[in-house]
Amino acid sequence: MEILQKLSLKECKTFKKLEEITDIASLPKEEQIMHEECIKAYRNYLETKGYAIEELEADWEQGFAQGWKEGFEKGWKQAKIEIARKMKAKGLPVDLIAECTGLTAEEIEAL
Question: Alpha-carbon distance 37 to 47, whole Å?
């Protein structure tokens, strides 16, 4: 018993696993089959769960990137509009404002 207490945690886990295997091996064949089916079902569950988490993370990253891009583009457009308003207020020609901001003449005239 003293020797068992001195074993490392890894070694203790190994002995516990061996004990579990021995316990399963001593079960009737029908119960062994049921046990194996339960283990297979649990492993399938873990694989499915892992796949679902990976897909969710990928979708989240894609959605975040798309949202950031759209937000950036909207902010950039708003900045162009604000600059165009100021240029128009200073009396600059529409064609010059369009050239500097990339806005169309119609967009500038609507300001």
Answer: 15
Q: 27-73: per-residue pLDDT in tens?
A: 788 887 888 888 899 899 989 999 999 999 999 999 999 999 999 99
d(CA 79, CA 100): 12
pTM of the model: 0.49
Whole-number Å distance between alpha carbons of 94 and 92: 7
What is the spatial distance between Cα 27 and Cα 57, in angstroms, rounded to a whole number? 42
Residue written as token pair 């165009």: 84
What does the chain come to in residues?
Answer: 111
The torsion region of residue 6 among left (phi > 0), alpha (psi -120 to 50) and beta comes to alpha
